[in-house]
From TrEMBL:
A GO term, aspect molecular function: uracil phosphoribosyltransferase activity
InterPro entries found in the cross-reference section: PRTase-like (IPR029057), PRTase_dom (IPR000836), PyrR (IPR023050), PyrR_bifunctional (IPR050137)
Name of protein: Bifunctional protein PyrR
Functional summary from the UniProt entry: Regulates the transcription of the pyrimidine nucleotide (pyr) operon in response to exogenous pyrimidines.
Gene3D superfamilies, per the entry: 3.40.50.2020
HAMAP family: PyrR
Domain Phosphoribosyltransferase positions: 22-165
Catalytic activity line of the entry: UMP + diphosphate = 5-phospho-alpha-D-ribose 1-diphosphate + uracil
The enzyme's E.C. designation: 2.4.2.9
């Protein structure tokens, strides 16, 4: 997510030996499963709004919206939520480029907002997203969908929809690549060799 998925997912560089834990067909399958789970839990998804957290969370939200439209036969509102100015590490990191916040035309008030991100790690990114969301409207409820939950939570935050639970050590790295940004769909598990991971 964010301006640098390499940092935020804990990847230290392309030189790391990494093995794929999800490939393109696997990612497509888990997104289909998550879409069905959203419809079931939201009782038809009539009031659902998907908000992706930049960068890769936005692409995942758009893919989920397409799958939800296939299931329900209705267009699904989808947007993006930039959390840059709400992060708790702003003073400790170099300046970040702002991403875009795009809220669907009907707004968020009274809606079920599903936040979408690629990797759930410490929970600090989601805390920032909740703070940002509070400045934009008053949803009926907020849920969280992630492609990968790698553990190591620092805050009491839990995903409602998880593509893959991937237990990791803090020395391991998780990198999500998506075709829209990286030219291919894969999730790579590697070993950290240099800088410490950003908290996600």
């Amino acid at each position: 997510m964010d301006t640098s998925n390499t940092l935020n997912s804990g990847i230290s560089g392309e030189g790391d030996a990494a093995r794929p834990v999800l490939e393109g067909p696997d990612i497509a399958r888990v997104l289909t499963r998550i879409a069905h789970e959203i419809v079931e839990r939201a009782k038809g998804a009539d009031d659902v709004v998907l908000l992706g957290i930049p960068t890769r969370g936005v692409f995942l939200a758009r893919r989920l919206a397409a799958k939800l439209e296939e299931i329900t036969g209705r267009p699904m509102p989808v947007g993006s939520l930039d959390i840059t100015m709400y992060r708790d590490d702003l003073r400790m990191r170099p300046a970040r480029a702002l991403a875009r916040t795009e809220i669907p035309g009907d707004g968020l008030d009274g809606r079920l907002v599903v936040l979408v991100d690629d990797v759930l790690f410490s929970g600090r990114t989601i805390r920032a997203a909740l703070d940002a969301l509070g400045d934009l409207g008053r949803p009926r409820a907020v849920q969280l969908a992630v492609l990968v939950d790698r553990g190591h939570r620092e805050l009491p935050i839990r995903a409602d929809y998880v593509g893959k639970n991937l237990p990791t050590s803090l020395r391991e790295t998780v990198k999500v690549q998506l075709a829209e940004e990286d030219g291919r769909d894969t999730v790579l598990l590697g070993v950290k060799q240099t800088a410490p991971a950003d908290s996600k």
